[in-house]
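User: Predict the full complex structure for these chains.
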Amino acid sequence: MRLVTMLWAGVAAASLVLSAIQITVWALNRRALPNLAFAISSLGLVGVAWCELAMMNSNSAHEWGEWVRWFHLPNFFMFVGMLLFVRLYLDAGRTWLFGLIVSLRTIILAVNFWVEPNFNFSQIDAITRIQWLGDSITIASRLTPSPWQWVATLTTILSVLYIADACVTAWRNGVPEGRRRTFVVGIGISLFFIPAVINTQLMIWGVWRTPTLIAPSFLVALAAMGFEMSREILRAYSLSRELQDSEQALQLAASAGGLGLWSWDARTGEVWTTNAARTMFGLPASGRVSINSLATMVAPEDLARLDECVAVIKQTEAEQEIQFGIRIRDGSTRWILARGRCELEAPGRISRIRGVVRDVTEQHKTMQELEDLRARLAHSSRVTALGHLSSALAHELRQPLVAIQSNIEAAELILQHSPPLELEELREILADIRRDDQRAADVIDRMRSLMKHHDLEQQPISMDGLLQDVIALVRSDATRRAVVLQARIHGSALTVLGDRVHLSQVLINLIMNAMDAMNSTPAGHRRVIISANRTGEESIEVSVSDSGSGISQDTMPRLFDPFFTTKPSGMGIGLSVCRMIVDSHGGKLWAENNDTGGATFRLTLTPHAA
Amino acid sequence: MPLKVALTDDDESVSRSITRLLRLSGMIPTAFRSAEAFLEFPAPSTFDCLILDIYIEGGMSGLELKARLNAEGIRTPVIFFSAHDDAETRAEVERVGCYAFLRKGDGIKLLLAKLQELEGAAPWREAFRQD
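Assistant: Here is the predicted structure of the two-chain assembly.
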């Protein structure tokens, strides 16, 4: 008895293990219904093995018959579980046939516990003990099958048909992966399960006398299917290996690119970062990081912008980028470029925000140095331009000084009479002196503001005021060179957003170039027209137009190149600086020849929205 | 007999203050804002002296005006009074000729002195008139 007991107990234990594995898989992934069906089937098999063993150990015909009855209960689950598994795993099989088989088996199960001794037999007359596998086991020796046994046989035949049909359908529909499944399931069932069932039927019908062998043979079938299913587990394992590999590759790529990775879990509020990201923020390699502790590091002037960016990220799902400064614990300041995007678990419900950070302190410094260099260049170009204007500006300053001198002389003449006769005239003289003094001061102020080193500072500027200032600076020079300056402002109260000093510089440069271009134009035909137009909702165009000889085809493409000049004493930085300044205002500067002769320089600026 | 002086300068302040000074100095000044305006004056030869700015905004320069007067044979003494003083300007002045070329930077007293010099040289004046 020992070998048989061990064999059947082994079957029970093995199917219990299989069942436990598949239940666990299903518990982890509730959509893995084939695994659940498989677990039900193998759990049924545990009971089947138990009942078969008990049958083989029976001491009386009655006891044997009782165990056959109990056999039906686990058999039902094993059977239905298997059919369900075939159905779910192969995604094939006729629904009506499935329903029919399950209904019949349910009826059989119910009737089984209602009739004596069980559904299969109407009478069990005798049992006998035989030697089998070196053991002594009990089998029934005289049996009368019940008149309804054919129903049970029918369900068995239907099941075989059902499985065969399902396998054929699945094979036909199948991709290679599905075909292998079908093959393993079909072979497993037909090689082991079907013979065992046929054996049982033949035993019941009294064709031959053997013990029922469902448990061991079905276990083999289950094992085959179980192996097939565990391929998924193997795949999951290799996937996790691949995932680890790709994560390592990603980390490597990230650290090589100087990137830190981070993510923020919306549910727990926890922040995950790579070590590189922690190093960037000067944080210890381990320990919790909270959003709040990070926020305290952000430079106060950048915090509002950062908050705004996060709000946009939460709304749009599109990737956003922002640069901000942080103060590290050691007191240093770093510049961080961060990109991020949110992941939604459902529309409007954020599960996490994920992104990268990059230390751009060096780039930021370089940018600032470049900015500084540009400012210096703009300044030196401005000073150079003023140098060219200096004699004209000296003249501009002389005028009020001569007027003041004359008035002082005049006042002295009046005061020579005692008492002075023309007090009213004296009062006028004082008023005139005050006005001329102011005029001289204005000239000096205008010059000084252009001479000073100056950082870009955007503010609303009235086009009218800007042109007046610029013309005041170049007027003397224009007069000296017999150039007529005309300012035309189209549209009332044009206001641009920009830097007053830098824009003045651009216009002065353009006007001086325009005047230079007319050196060989006969006096009386030298005309510079400066005009400002609103050309659209988002743009104001300023143009400086001359009546000179125009720009040659050779010169045109290189006009704005640094150190390119057509003037003997020119440095060739004026126009390149002009373009740089206009660029930094978000505008464009270009040149074109006029149809009527001469050239026009045009630049676009952004209007200030009042 | 007070000196009749015509002043042509495009700068309003300069014109106003010099006119005032000449008047208080006992002369009879007349101010013009451009060379063109002076040429429209019906009797340019009634002036004893012309004070001309050299570069005048938006129009004929003092040098051109002097050249025009030369061409018309009007030999009224001209004093150029300008803030500009460069080689090119000096050469131009040389070419058209003048009684005096004064820089505005030299001061107003020099202009007064030149005018008084003209005033004292009445015979000269008469000589010019006869010419």
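Residues 12-24 of chain B form the longest helix (13 residues).
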